[in-house]
């Protein structure tokens, strides 16, 4: 934007002014940018435009969780979720329309893959949520204090667009979030994990779900491309020099599949040496899901084994279930067009 303004014969700081208008004041109309001259506002309206995803529905759960269904170019739809808690508000954003990874227990994975979201479509989710939650124009008031890339899609398969969106999330002239409060979650795209570490100081979450290759191949087919040993080495590299931080490992609890104390002990062994926090996610059902959620007792037993071994372990409370906004329940509207990832990369069929 600075380059464009220079081309218009304007000083570069005008770009900062515009970014502040858009991302701190929630203004998406040049006419309202009152510290820009009238002639410049006119020129800008001629050569730039604001494109926002259109809100199809906004639902509010009995627990305060909100879910937006947003129309994106091409007539497809994505979902974004806001989870309020006493000490923070987390926005869960989507990075793709659908998802190509086909994790066996995930509703998004079942519906196929549409396309990558643009940077504008990713940051547009934040803008729409911030406007709806009254975050503009008061920079001090923060309904959205944290962002997680845990909506639809695999963020590290849309690396460039996700990275540009992250830059705006962290930029003091835009959302100014601390790097610890922005988390990229991946099913284990090993090469991109290394790139991310070089490029951005954000936090990382890894969707593990199984402590050995046989089981993980079944649940997360991407494991056939990047098996556990490679993934865990990538986690060690990511955690290097991050002395105060740990990687969050997500582990969806599936009754009779991955939830026994033996699995927990195996998990302790594989995480050995990695600064880690484990997030246990009770499986959220969806039509035709084919799994059962682990019992509260099984989850507690599993947690106790990890905790006893010194691994910090939290059980994620299910939020927004009554509006299908919980983990793995986001479906939007996807026209699957592309071949799915692991078929492309490994030739495997399922
Ligand atoms: N593709 C990225 C981002 C999605 S994050 C990743 O895999 O990390 C969404 C998290 O919810 C992932 O850990 C995913 O495995 C988990 N999940 C998917 N379906 C679920 C379900 N039905 N119940 C509970 N968790 C689920």
Mind explaining what this structure looks like?
There is one protein chain. By secondary structure, the protein is α/β, with parallel strands linked by helices. It has two domains: 1-50, DNA polymerase, domain 1; 55-345, Aldolase class I (TIM Barrel), CATH 3.20.20.70. It contains twelve helices and twelve strands. The strands form two sheets. Strands 1-2-3-4-7-8-9-10-11-12 form a ten-stranded mixed β-sheet. The longest helix is centred in the middle third of the chain and has 14 residues, at 119-132. The protein is globular. The model is unreliable at 342-350 (pLDDT under 50). Bound molecules: S-adenosyl-L-homocysteine.
Which ligands does the model contain, each kind named once?
Answer: S-adenosyl-L-homocysteine
SSE string, helices as H and strands as E: HHHEEEEEHEHEHEHEHHEHEHEH
The largest sheet is: 10 strands, mixed
The total number of structural domains is 2
- CATH class membership of the largest domain: Alpha Beta
What CATH architecture label of the largest domain applies? Alpha-Beta Barrel
What best-fitting shape do the alpha-carbon axes yield? Answer: globular
Radius of gyration: 21 Å
> What is the tally of beta strands?
12
Q: Termini separation (Å)?
A: 46 Å
Structural class: alpha/beta
Largest sheet: spatial strand order: 1-2-3-4-7-8-9-10-11-12
């Amino acid at each position: 934007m600075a380059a464009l303004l220079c081309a218009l014969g304007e000083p570069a700081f005008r770009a900062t002014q515009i970014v502040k208008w858009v991302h701190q004041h929630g203004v998406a109309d040049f006419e309202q940018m009152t510290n820009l001259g009238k002639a410049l506002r006119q020129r800008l309206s001629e050569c730039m435009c604001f494109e926002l995803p259109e809100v199809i529905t906004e639902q509010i759960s009995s627990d305060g969780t909100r879910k937006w269904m947003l129309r994106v170019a091409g007539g497809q739809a994505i979902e974004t979720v806001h989870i309020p808690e006493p000490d923070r508000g987390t926005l869960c954003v989507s990075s793709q329309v659908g998802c190509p990874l086909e994790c066996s227990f995930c509703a998004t994975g079942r519906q196929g893959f549409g396309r990558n979201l643009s940077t504008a479509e990713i940051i547009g989710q934040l803008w729409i949520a911030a406007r709806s939650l009254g975050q503009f124009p008061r920079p001090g008031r923060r309904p959205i204090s944290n962002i997680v890339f845990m909506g639809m899609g695999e963020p590290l398969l849309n690396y460039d667009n996700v990275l540009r969106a992250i830059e705006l999330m962290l930029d003091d002239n835009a959302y100014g979030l601390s790097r610890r409060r922005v988390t990229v979650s991946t099913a284990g795209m090993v090469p991109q994990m290394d790139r991310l570490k070089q490029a951005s100081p954000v936090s990382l979450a890894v969707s593990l779900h199984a402590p050995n290759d046989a089981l993980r191949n079944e649940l997360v087919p991407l494991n056939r491309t990047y098996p556990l040993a490679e993934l865990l080495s990538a986690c060690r590299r990511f955690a290097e020099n991050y002395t105060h931080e740990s990687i969050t490992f997500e582990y969806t609890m599936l009754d009779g599949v991955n939830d026994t104390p033996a699995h927990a002990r195996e998990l302790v062994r594989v995480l050995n040496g990695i600064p880690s926090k484990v997030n246990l996610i009770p499986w959220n059902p969806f039509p035709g899901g084919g799994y059962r959620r682990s019992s509260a007792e099984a989850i507690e037993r599993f947690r106790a084994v990890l905790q006893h071994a010194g691994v910090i372990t939290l059980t994620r409370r299910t939020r927004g279930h009554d509006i299908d906004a919980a983990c793995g329940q986001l479906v939007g509207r996807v026209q699957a067009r592309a071949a799915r990832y692991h078929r492309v990369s490994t030739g495997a069929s399922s």
